[in-house]
Amino acid sequence: MIAILGAGESGVGAALLAQAKGMEVFVSDKAEIKPVYQQKLQAANIPFESGSHDYDRILSASEIIKSPGIPDKADLIQQAKAKNIPVISEIEFAARYTQAKFICITGTNGKTTTTLLTYHLLKSAGLNVGLAGNIGESLAEKVIKDEFDYYVVELSSFQLDGMYQFKAHIAILLNITPDHLDRYEYSMAKYAQSKLRIAQNITSSDYFVYNLDDALINEYFQPETFQGQAIPFAINQEANAKAYYKGTQLQTNYAGAEEQIDTSTSVLIGKHNQYNTAAAVLAARLIGISPEEITAALGNFKNADHRLQTVGEANGVRYINDSKATNVEAVWYALDGITQSIVWIAGGVDKGNDYTTLKNLAQEKIKALICLGVDNKKLVESFAGIIPVIKETQSVEEAITMAKEIAAPGDVVLLSPACASFDLFNNYEHRGQRFAEAVQQIALSPVQQER
């Protein structure tokens, strides 16, 4: 019997795949299972429990497939390991039942953008490719029909922790910065090793594409012991870089021949997106997609919502929704990538932010700060005397009205909060949606523009 812990997207997908392969399956979730997933399990006649764990039944399983959200230190997982019951991730399980090639992406930041862009480049070139993983789609459920030659898979460190025999054909590691350290005994070394599991089991016919500019990758990756083909990339030319930029041209030299790939058509802005673009472009080239096809596809890529997403333009002012930027580092990338003068909308629930790294960019680029939050004291104190105009509000509509009055033709109004959203909104998506709606109603409304 296969026991599945967690009945979200990955758990239900794994249950359906296990059933399709003729296995006895039991699904258990300590929380209440969402109705949509209960319905899927009921339709398939898969037994499940919601709101509790039947330890005896689960610990009689021959194998356990665990949701990424359940930590290894959980009592049930510890008991399973004490009984030598294998505990794996949905990705590890799904990979057993397909011969497709995997292009896998991980990193602390930029995973989703790079995953979506890689998928877009492959699909635009006509390849038979599926999208799965941490992006929100179950690989296991897709593998039931197994219709694809390639899968582009976003992987979190939590998913990687439950993967053992899995092998990527192209593994991409974008960066490593402190995150989720509570799951890794507050050890950067353990977190870094988790991220580097993306390159495990790779052979000489596979590739590891990684960011040579990232200090922690360089510290923990050991090329001399690596069996695959390493393709390090960087922004500027370095001795070991197999790919780097000259302006908007990505220079590559990983197969003995130099090549230039034009990235000027990319709609992505900022230095961090240069890294994301380089990784995705290299994956596409390694699969065999031509530079011309890549350049054409870069120009019509649409990123996920709430990530430096242009939501409107009126009277020469561009409005950008970067609601996903819930930490200082993400805001730094946004400010660094925008060349125009900025009206910055920020604020929310502070997560212990230190705004020091933003101050030079703020002095150089930001003409006004509109604090959108219940408690804006730290933001106001951090940028007083640096940003000439600072205003406060708890209304997104008022924030847009203020921004519209301040912004001049050629400026950018940027929502990039640096904070969590839970003081005024349900989550960052809700905040971004409300921002986009307010832009449409106030900034882009013909009636408003005529005034």
UniProtKB/TrEMBL annotation:
The keyword Nucleotide-binding applies. It is found in: Cytoplasm. It catalyses: UDP-N-acetyl-alpha-D-muramoyl-L-alanine + D-glutamate + ATP = UDP-N-acetyl-alpha-D-muramoyl-L-alanyl-D-glutamate + ADP + phosphate + H(+). ATP binds at G107, T108, N109, G110, K111, T112, T113. Its main location: cytoplasm. The keyword Nucleotide-binding applies. Pathway: Cell wall biogenesis; peptidoglycan biosynthesis. Its EC number is 6.3.2.9. Keywords: ATP-binding, Cell cycle, Cell division, Cell shape, Cell wall biogenesis/degradation, Cytoplasm, Ligase, Nucleotide-binding, Peptidoglycan synthesis. Pfam families: Mur_ligase_C (PF02875), Mur_ligase_M (PF08245), MurD-like_N (PF21799). GO terms for cellular component: cytoplasm. Residues 306-419 form the Mur ligase C-terminal domain. GO terms for biological process: cell division; cell wall organization; peptidoglycan biosynthetic process; regulation of cell shape. Belongs to the MurCDEF family. This is UDP-N-acetylmuramoylalanine--D-glutamate ligase. The lineage of its organism: Bacteria, Pseudomonadati, Bacteroidota, Cytophagia, Cytophagales.
